[in-house]
Design a protein that fits this description.
263 residues, alpha/beta, 5-stranded parallel β-sheet
């Protein structure tokens, strides 16, 4: 029996379906696409991590799943180490390539990426990584950095038509044979006073800021209580990639062209 050929889109800090070069390139490669997110125990137990982070990620993934529901597809979610997940998938599928954004995180994620890269190279699987913000690995100085950042932020966004995505879902049998931890209930329980994760929620915050709240930004930025509504509140959506830097920059520039003051 032939093994199905697929492409993998590995979500990390890019929890969105739009302005997503890895997804765009995977779709245009012509193979069925498997979109996955991996909750990694080694990262979850790191001192930099907290339940509020993973609750935000879980909510963001649920938002993506709802967006994909009408296409009979979903995000494949694992709670295991990345290398174990890739090893299992490559046993059951003929992976043509892996697509992801270049993660600029902490030492744990950097070392993990090196292990995954070695694993894929040994199996002749290409891994295409795409930059999504201003961090540039390997630079010896900042010469030209500002110009490069603005050049990137102004580049046209490649629109993704979701109805053209040929997504595949893993079977219940696949998941049942793969040992992994359950998703903690605390991640699934909303907390009233915390911002909810999700691509669509990020757009709501961006729109309300550019349409109205921005008028108070300069006066409320240094006032703890007033800044709660006077600031953009986009930080978590940018940190986890529910919105891209390019989307926010271009939306702000469009508002400026309409005559709205954006500072």
């Amino acid at each position: 029996m032939s093994v199905q050929k697929i492409s993998i889109v590995w979500l990390k800090r890019d929890l969105r379906l739009h302005d997503h070069p890895p997804l765009w390139h995977a779709i245009h490669a012509g193979y069925p696409v498997l979109i996955l997110y991996i909750f990694e125990p080694s990262l979850i137990s790191a001192p930099q991590s907290d339940d509020r982070h993973w609750r935000f990620v879980w909510e963001s993934l649920q938002d993506l799943t709802l967006q994909l529901q009408s296409f009979q597809a979903s995000i494949e979610i694992f709670h295991a180490e990345a290398l174990d997940v890739f090893e299992k998938i490559t046993q059951d599928f003929q992976v043509q390539a892996v697509y992801s954004h270049l993660e600029t995180g902490i030492g744990i994620t950097f070392e993990r990426d090196k292990r995954v890269s070695k694993f894929l190279k040994e199996r002749n699987i290409d891994w295409f990584e795409f930059s999504q913000q201003g961090v540039q690995r390997g630079r010896k100085n900042r010469k030209g950095w500002r110009e490069n950042w603005f050049a990137y932020a102004k580049t046209p966004i490649q629109e993704i038509s979701l109805n053209k995505i040929q997504l595949i879902s893993l079977s219940k049998e696949f998941h049942s044979k793969f040992h992994q931890k359950p998703i903690p209930e605390s991640w699934k329980t909303p907390v009233k006073d915390m911002q909810k994760g999700g691509e669509r929620m990020g757009w709501r915050y961006l729109k309300s800021f550019l349409d109205d709240r921005v008028k108070n930004y300069n006066w409320h930025i240094s006032k703890p209580e007033l800044s709660r509504t006077g600031c953009s509140r986009l930080s978590p959506y940018l940190a986890w990639g529910c919105l891209s830097i390019r989307q926010v920059f271009q939306a702000s520039e469009n508002k400026k062209e309409e005559g709205k003051s954006i500072r």
